[in-house]
Write a structure and sequence with these properties.
Heat Shock Protein 90, alpha+beta, 396 residues, five-stranded mixed sheet
Length: 396
């Protein structure tokens, strides 16, 4: 299996090429870092300078993809350069390798390299000074620090800034994601609220229209048809008014359409009268004091939807609505006859959205909701029982 060599970064190719050409230029004009007769020069002549130069240029090609490896190879090349006449470009490229090894290397290497380079700088200062016993020995440590510690420290600072910028970018992305999730949840909640309001405000009128229009079409009795048409007209006008009210809720101000106040339990009398006009036998028992607006709205809508369901599905008989306030809760109970045949007209189909809407309203207020058939002294009934908590200090 062939080993795939890493591909150099385009910028690294440019750096390596510029370093190589610069080194060749200095070599061509005969400019080195030390004279040929210096005792440290073991490889005399101009040609040995080129080997460390070419090796260092090759290391520059892989400064990002293999930072630790090229640092080790570059160190060997720099050591070889010190026993030749030397090239300034070779030294400069080595400092870049030190910088790149800290900036692009693994986190563990990036932490160790500055400490290692600092230790080399200290050793390069102490040992020559102790051996030669001349102040000029300190200059060797300074040069070593400039070649090793300075680029390593610079790479560490740049890496910290880069990591901090990346962390800030990730935090900004997370914040934007959370904001988008909050926005989506807010939109979904508002759509669900609008769907409940639309269903509760209009379903009662449309159900009555459906029932009485079916009766008018199925019964060949002019008086009955006229009465049904009157009820249909009344519910049509009421439904149109409710739709206008819903539009008013959705608008701040538009022409002569202004937002209307949310319905309260004080309006249950009119709601029950409307249900009676549609043919229901309704008995209302309501006792309460001042309640929070959300609680009153939820209780009103639950009674409204229960009466709509009774109009559509209940058998002939009495529908009871009971509302009582106790301690820190409001009890709402609506019962209607369940089972058996209905002989006072056709029924309207149901979608089940009403029960879902009631359950959602109660859940938003952390209350309890029960709906289903029960046995009673008058026979089988359908009962809706809701308990809404009332927190002290929320009453208006």
């Amino acid at each position: 299996m062939a080993v795939r060599l890493p591909r150099p970064h385009p910028d690294d190719v440019r750096i390596a090429l510029a370093g190589l050409l610069g080194g060749l230029l200095l070599w061509g004009i005969g400019l080195g870092t030390r004279p040929g007769d210096e005792p440290m020069v073991l490889w005399e002549g101009r040609w040995p300078v080129l080997l460390p130069l070419f090796v260092m240029a090759g290391c520059e090609l892989l400064r990002r993809v293999r930072p630790r490896t090229v640092l080790l190879v570059g160190t060997v090349a720099l050591t070889c350069d010190t026993v030749t006449q030397g090239s300034l470009v070779t030294v400069v490229m080595f400092t870049d390798l030190v910088y790149a090894s800290v900036l692009y290397g693994p986190p563990a290497s990036a932490r160790r390299i500055p400490w290692i380079m600092g230790l080399l700088s200290v050793i390069g200062t102490v040992v020559p000074t102790a051996v030669w016993r001349v102040p000029e020995g300190v200059l060797i440590g300074v040069v070593i620090g400039l070649v090793t510690l300075a680029p390593a420290a610079t790479g560490w600072i740049v890496r910290n800034h880069r990591d901090a910028a990346e962390a800030a970018r990730l935090r900004a992305q997370q914040t934007a994601l959370l904001a988008e999730m909050d926005r989506s949840q807010a939109v979904s909640s508002e759509r669900a609220r609008m769907a409940r309001e639309l269903h509760d405000m209009v379903a009662n009128h449309l159900s009555a229209i459906a029932i009485h229009s079916t009766a008018a079409l199925s019964l060949d009795d002019p008086d009955t048809s006229k009465e049904a048409l009157g009820v249909i007209r009344q519910n049509s006008v009421g439904g149109l008014a409710e739709m206008r009210r819903l539009i008013g809720i959705l608008r701040d101000s538009s022409g002569d359409t202004e937002p209307a106040a949310a319905p309260t339990l004080d309006g249950l009398g009119a709601l029950v009268d409307h249900a009676r006009a549609n043919g229901l036998d309704v008995d209302l028992d309501c006792t309460h004091t001042a309640l929070p607006t959300p609680v009153e709205l939820a209780a009103y809508r639950i009674v409204q939807e229960s009466l709509t369901n009774a109009l559509k599905h209940a058998s002939a008989g009495r529908v009871t609505v009971g509302i009582a306030q106790r301690d820190h809760a409001l009890d709402v109970r609506v019962t209607s006859p369940y089972g058996g045949a209905r002989d006072d007209g056709p029924r309207a189909p149901g979608s089940g959205a009403g029960l879902v809407g009631m359950r959602e309203r109660v859940a938003l207020l952390h209350g309890s909701f029960e709906a289903g058939p029960e046995d009673s002294a008058d026979g089988k009934i359908w009962a809706v029982h809701v308990t809404l908590p009332v927190t002290e200090g929320e009453s208006e």
